[in-house]
Design brief:
Layout (H helix, E strand, L loop, with lengths): L4 H13 L14 H16 L3 H11 L4 H20 L5 H9 L3 H7 L9 H5 L3 H14 L2 H8 L4 H10 L3 H9 L4 H9 L3 H13 L3 H8 L4 H14 L1
Protein name: DUF2336 domain-containing protein
Length: about 240
């Protein structure tokens, strides 16, 4: 569990580079915005040189039937390349391909999907497919990926995902990894007051109440008012 917003950003930076967060301990005194900016720039610099190839692969996949494209993806591309190519495939076709992929393979791919460029794809995934994948991610406790996917998900998708996360401490982590006011509001709307109270309690137990309060300061006014009301009720 991260103990500051900066630590949460460092964790995501380490994930981007496939290394341990301890490698970036020197960034602990930086603002979360600064670390996030570094992460975005590194991700772009690593991705952009290969983007033409990803586009060619996406165009090639469109020349074969969806089921065959899905088979080629699982046998020859692997999760990382599939995640990188995903945003170059038309959202409707990508959703059709996902339906032909093994659920665990889709779960393997999701950490490599950029929600900022794959929003239409993520929004087009049916709940019947999304729920098993999110269940697998919850079992893996891949809370960083879950939080990132929420950035581009519909409210129904967020609702279904939140219902799968039973441990208040895991819900707390998903909030700490959030990156936008919109995703914070969506996740808050997906839980009732009792579950919100449990998240607040988990934050107190982990000595993260101040950190969560800082995260929740990014909520819309109605969201902040709701958090205050539930917090006062439990005081």
């Amino acid at each position: 569990m991260t103990h500051s917003i900066t630590e949460a950003e460092i964790t995501k930076l380490a994930r981007e580079l496939g290394t341990d967060p301890s490698e970036f301990a020197f960034l602990a005194g930086s603002s979360p915005e600064a670390v996030r900016t570094i992460r975005y720039r590194i991700a772009a610099s690593l991705d952009e040189p290969h983007r033409p190839m990803f586009r060619r692969l996406a165009r090639a996949s469109a020349l074969v039937p969806v089921a065959l494209a899905a088979t080629i993806a699982t046998r020859f591309f692997g999760p990382m390349l599939c995640g990188a190519v995903a945003s170059e495939i038309a959202a409707e076709r990508a959703a059709s391909m996902i339906a032909h992929l093994p659920m665990k393979f889709v779960a393997d791919v999701t950490p490599y999907v950029n929600p900022r460029t794959s929003g239409p794809l993520i929004k087009g995934i049916e709940l019947s497919i999304l729920v098993p994948v999110m269940t697998e991610l919850v079992e893996r406790r891949d809370l960083v990926t879950i939080s990132r996917l929420v950035e581009a998900a519909t409210q129904d998708q967020v609702q279904a995902s939140a219902e799968l996360i039973e441990d208040p401490a895991d819900l707390l982590a998903v909030y700490l990894f959030a990156e936008s006011t919109e995703s914070l509001d969506a996740m808050l709307a997906a839980i009732d007051d009792d579950r919100l109270a449990a998240v607040l309690g988990a934050a107190r137990e982990a000595d993260l109440a101040d950190v969560l309060a800082e995260v929740f300061s990014g909520l819309s006014a109605p969201g902040r008012n709701r958090v205050e009301a539930v917090s006062d009720r439990g005081a």
